[in-house]
Amino acid sequence: MIAKIGRGSKIYGALLYNHNKVIQDKGQILHMNNMLETPDGNYTTGQLLASFMPNLASNKKTEKTVIHISLNPDPGDIVSDEDFIRIANEYMTKMGYGNQPYVVFKHNDIDRTHIHIVSTTIDENGKKISDVFEKKRSMEICRKIEKDYNLTPADQKINFDESFKFTPVNYNNGNIKSQIASVVRYLPNYYNFQNLGSYNALLSLFNIIAEHIKKDINGELKEGLAYFALDVNGNKVGNPFKASLFGKQSGLAALRSHFEKSKQISDDIKVKTRTIISQALNLTSNEKEFKDYLIEQGINIVIRRNDQGRVYGITFVDHNTGHVFNGSHLGKQFSANIFHELFSKKEVNENLKIEDILPKNPGVSLRTSLKDDLHPIFDFMIKTSGIISDWGLLDSILLGGMSEDPEEQLFEFNMKKRKKKRGQNKS
Prior knowledge:
Elements: E1 2-8, H1 11-23, E2 27-33, H2 45-50, H3 53-57, E3 66-72, H4 81-94, E4 102-107, E5 114-120, H5 134-148, H6 160-163, H7 176-184, H8 187-190, H9 196-204, E6 208-217, E7 220-230, E8 236-242, H10 252-262, H11 267-283, H12 287-296, E9 299-305, E10 311-318, E11 323-326, H13 327-330, H14 336-343, H15 354-357, H16 366-373, H17 376-385, H18 391-398, H19 406-426
Antiparallel strand pairs: 1-3, 2-4, 3-5, 4-5, 6-7, 7-8, 9-10, 10-11
């Protein structure tokens, strides 16, 4: 079982993301601990939110007040709802959150059934719960739960270099033709790429480049590919090799067919890659850290810059799914212009949000949605209890800053797109 721990400052976003799964019949509320309950057992996001307000209002200094945990058993494990509840309670108790309000959501929208737990890092006395050695403690708890519930032990993370299927070309080793052949003959069997640029981004990881050749022979245009080896600086070295030397699968016609097939890709695969990239953006502070983090997660990034140093192209090679994406294929928020803005700074500004760079979306604000969603009793409690005297403070507690969970970020981004479309349809 693998536990993923996310921290943030936007509890309403975390609850909304999970509760939206329930509304769409892609999940359910499995369990609530120290939460306010309704007579009929049905909840709005605002009603769930009410249970966290006393804790959140008692500490205005702590920045990351939200903890969002997903517990992921092996896809082959069959876990009953009762065991999921017991596992969630055991995990939260041993992590120090046993007395906290928390809600357990079960997600079943993908083959791998798993649970999400949303809680707050602020206890009832306004103190922040310690996160010292959090990852180590979490791993130890997961190993014990695996034994107690006969779950499949989580595989040890394989180092990216150890799992690599191909060897980069080394010009100094000689026999360049054989070295290139051992890569280009088999890459289409393992990877999907949508154009020659994406193919070359992938080839560059193996110190190879493919050049599109056009020749007019007796009035007839002939096209083909020539392969070159690259040195450590990315410069072409040695003589070119015709694609025909490596078989039809390495030629232009076969690759063009492969390009078209690679465009038939499901959104689920894109989401997996976007999720990891979004997480990298949240957890790193500069370009090197960003690249290193992605490599650890099995993704290479290939950046193209002009002579002035401006990023004009960015490609992600996801070895986990075997897909190569130009940034724009994943969405505007992953385009070259966005990363130029981020990488041109010495450090990524922690306050920089993707939505600050993108054009503003019209439509109903998230704050307005929150006010409309709040249960009348909760709304009355806010206005009369003195806990919160104005909606500006509510914004800072519930909606301040970007969500730390990358899946939530994608959810919020999609919600905004839908609001934009609704606004355009009304006009």
